[in-house]
Amino acid sequence: MHPPAELLRFTRGEHWVHRTTALLMGICLATAAILYVGALATAVGNRAIIEWIHVIAGLSLPAPTLIGLLSKAFRGDVRRLNRFSASDWKWLRSSTRRGGTLPIGKFNAGQKLNANFQLGAILVMMLTGSVMRFANHWPIEWRTGATFVHDWIAYAILAVVLGHVYMANRDPEAMRGMRTGYVPLTWAEREHGEWAAREVPNTMPDGETPAPARSHGPR
Amino acid sequence: MTDLIDESTDAQPDEGGRPIGRRIVLGMVGLGVLGVVFGKHLQDAENAVLRPVEEHDPTGLSSLVPAGDSFRFYSITGSEPHRTPDDYRLTVDGMVDRPITLTLADLASMPQTALVKDFQCVTGWRVPGVHWAGVALPDLLDHVGVQKGAAAVQFTSFDGEYTESLSLDQARRRDVLVATQMLGGPVSRAHGGPVRLYVAPMYGYKSAKWLSGIKVTSAVIPGFWEDNGYDIDAWVGKSNGRSDAPTS
Questions:
Q1: Is-contact A175 A8, C-beta < 8 A?
Q2: A140/B66 touch (CB, cutoff 8 Å), yes or no
Q3: Which of B174, B188, B199, B166 is nearest to B113 (CA)?
Q4: Are the beta carbons of A136 and B241 separated by less than 8 Å?
Q5: Fewest CB atoms within 10 Å of the CB: A7, B132, B166, B213?
Q6: Closest Cα of chain B to A120: distance in Å?
Q7: Complex confidence, ipTM
Q8: B187 neighbors B178 (Cβ within 8 angstroms)
């Protein structure tokens, strides 16, 4: 039997968590631009409605992740994204990190930083946004401080999201992994060698094919 | 990410290493809380640096930097209301001896008052030292003659929705303007032009934009935001639970 041509990287549940989070984040960024950039604000108007959409989308942002925790596969990825191994630190410092020489797990250190930054940023934005939205309950200085933090983290989120989309567009196989759930085994061996080796313990011909892999070609 | 589940179950080789993700998340939340409590001081320092830049920035790009001291646009209706200088009219009526409809040229022919005062929004931002010019409201009220028994003034906007009001005593202050000039030029459409109200000692929601009507009444009629819970007497620093420095 041949080794599988593809590996299952993301389940449908994980795909849904990513899609929904991306959609809500996109709504937050678009409405933020309308509320914040004078020219857009005057062109669109309807400030109360835009603000309402922004607040609802922002408060909903952690929901996909929380619902995702019902999925065993998602919980496993949460665990992987939390842990930084010795090779992750080497990966961050290496100039030839994509050569496949470092034993990288299912996620590389950049993906881990991205995921953790976004979770932290979502929590900070919910915290500061709530102080701004429900301002009467706090000292007025807090509102100014919350606005200050909210504004600057918004720029940081925009930069990281643009970087995330840029990196995805540079790597069509990685993007296909998020879209369809499956990645080519050759890509997995190159980018996430340790993960590929564990998913397919024996890639020699006649090796046993593990359950999560499937053996038909790219769709 | 945060460790929400038992790490011992289903351990995999690439789950070794320290929980750096959790530290990143908790560290960001901690810094966020510190930023909320102490951010005002950082904001003040940033504004001190940025204000001279913004004042000399023809591109307007510096206004995208998140500083507190710049105007933010608010409109309660769908889009930006529009009147050209030619088709603009201001109606002054109610309990007055001589109701009148004024053009922009009529307003320009009346005695002009100029002020340099801060604009303070009830949501926290403040634009210091804005140049304002126009007709002082007491001059306009004297022009039409306020009748006995009048106690308040109501303002309406040609956006069709916005209303505001002042007591007659407040409306007779010299620092309340029917403004035709702002920031060194005609009041722009976004700032409420061609004519807006400017009530210097009060929060910005009193300074009705796109002003089209002034009606003298027997009692204060709460305005749009006052129906939504804002204070009717909107003195800066002494209303809406705020303690900002006075603007006048």
A1: no
A2: no
A3: B174
A4: yes
A5: B213
A6: 4
A7: 0.83
A8: no
